[in-house]
Amino acid sequence: RPARQAAASIAGAGTVDYCRFMGQQYDLLVIDLDGTLLDRRGRVSRRNCEALDAVRAAGMEVVIATGRTVVESAAALEAAKHEGLVIAAGGSLLCEAASRKTVHRHVLAHDLVNELTNSLIENGHKALILKDSHVTGYDYLAVGPGRLDPASEWWFSQLPVHVKFVESLEEDSHPQDTVRAGAVASGVHLEPLAHRLRSSMGERCCLQHWSAVTETEAIGSTTHLLEVFSAGVNKWTMVQRICQDRGIDRSRVAAIRHGINGLELLREAGLGVALGNASAPGRACGASTRRASCA
Fold first, then answer.
1. Type and span of the H or E element at 94
2. Residue from 61, 17, 7 nearest 248 by CA
């Protein structure tokens, strides 16, 4: 018989069938990292590792979907024994965990990167331009005269990321390989800027703004991220690509997450499980969403 304590076990929702939950059969489990698979200390618990093992043994494919890059996720992926696909950088990259190879990507037009970078620098922020490191050989281009936010300094010091510092975007030698651009700073300063950028950039891009992971807070931090992607990019659009390649109907996709980066997953997947620590939009975004406590 199928393994017990399903995907919802990761969310602390109790004992159910991994592949068959609420009477529905599922083939694909998409799960977030921060605030979901990872605890408040950034670790994968033994319980969650066992749950993932049972999911795989029952025949479901597991896909990690995160706002992090594959390099930034390396320790968590190893702890979770995940060697499959990773939807990284908020849906702008699809990568293989084992090889870190980019399978598919959505690049951000350079004119938008230039417009955003100028706005960030004018407002005293250093722009963080994320690259497809499989092509460029480095992860971030940090642009501008401003200092890194302490949260960014801590993040880069803790992870094996390669950051190049330049004064101007004119020094960008890989303009065609940008997959995300943004900044990290106090929410008090980034929130009004995010509103202005939404008005000026409109539907030409996808702009997101939420709390960042810091040295002391995994969720709910007063330090915020402002990130811009190519229009239409999110975790669900990359899930759709996987489903198309695998011949999987969206009704057979289960998704578990917290936070606002991935609301489309909960709305569009056959089953969406919002953790008890999820944002109000996450808990209210769809009838299929189930309330659960964090593991």
1. strand 93-96
2. 61
Cβ atoms of 140 and 129 within 8 Å: the answer is yes
Axis-axis angle for helices 187-201, 110-122 (nearest 10)? 140
Strands 93-96 and 85-88, by their bridges, are antiparallel
Q: Beta strand 28-31 with 253-257: parallel, antiparallel or unpaired?
A: parallel
Structure tokens that stand for 280 in this block: 């109000």
Is residue 181 within 8 A of residue 106, CB to CB? The reply is: no
Torsion angles phi and psi, residue 111, rounded to 5:
-65, -35
Q: Which among 219, 215, 199 is positioned nearest to 207, based on CA atoms?
A: 199
Contacts of 155 (CB under 8 A, 6+ apart): 72, 184, 213
Q: Quick one: tokens of 37?
A: 């698979």
Residue 211 amino acid letter: S
Alpha helices in the chain (DSSP H): 7-10, 46-57, 74-79, 110-122, 133-136, 150-158, 187-201, 235-246, 263-268, 280-284
CB 103 within 8 A of CB 125: no
Q: How far apart are CA 180 and CA 279, in angstroms?
A: 23
Model pTM above 0.90: no
User: Along the 295 residues of the chain, how does pLDDT read in single tens digits?
Assistant: 333 344 455 545 433 454 555 456 899 999 999 888 988 788 899 999 999 999 999 899 999 999 999 999 999 999 999 999 999 999 999 999 999 999 999 999 999 999 999 999 999 999 999 999 999 999 999 999 978 999 999 999 999 999 999 999 999 999 999 999 999 998 888 999 999 999 999 999 999 887 766 655 555 578 889 999 999 999 999 999 999 999 999 999 999 987 555 678 889 999 988 875 444 444 444 434 444 433 3
* 62 residue type, one letter: V
